[in-house]
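User: Structure please.
Assistant: Input sequence and predicted structure:
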Amino acid sequence: MGFSFLKQPLMLRHIVLFKFSDSSDKDEVAAHLKNLLDNLLDKIPELKGMEVGLNISTRPSAFDIVLTADFDDENGLNAYRVHPEHKKVLDYLEGKTEKSAVVDYFI
């Protein structure tokens, strides 16, 4: 569990960073992925809040896009992971990412 000044965690935050492969048209992939992710909020009831950001850094080690998603609890996150609309996003990313990083913590 992360550091918090609250007595009890209120939500579970899920953060994912994506770095696209060099063979991908990064701007096109990022724009389409952002659109897919932005639409999930209306389609997955367990998803309580979401933010998608496109990287502006030019550093070679930087990731290309970040997703921050909030859930009531781990059950909500697990329901999101197997939801058909989320799976569409994963299918789209197939072969387009070089790496990703995930952090889940209570806020």
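Helices lie at 26-40, 74-82, 84-93.
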